[in-house]
Amino acid sequence: QVQLVESGGGLVQAGGSLRLSCAASGRTFVRNALGWFRQAPGKEREFVAAISWSGDSTYYSDSVKGRGTISRDNAKNTVSLQMNSLKPEDPAVYYCAAPVNPHISPQAMRAMTPEGCYWGRGTQVTVSS
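Above: the chain sequence. Below: its structure as tokens.
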């Protein structure tokens, strides 16, 4: 199994930046993509970004494209999301996700269902005016 723990959330002023991290652990080795999703109060979970196991391929949602950067460090078993120019619509609980199917590409992760991934508990991101 894969266990994911997010960190780095907090209160950030609009226009500011924040770096979220996800630490992965578990006895099951999965050479697959990793991604970030988010869910705001009263809204559905939405895809944010994903990255391949090698880190050579990334995919971003339109909402964060150009101001979000996903990266990973397999030596440390971590995946990070750098968010710049935070907007009022960015506040949400951000979740780290690992597809159960190791063949899922970063592009395919945008359509992943909750049942198709391992999930972290989430980290809260709040944006102040």
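The chain has a mean pLDDT of 92.
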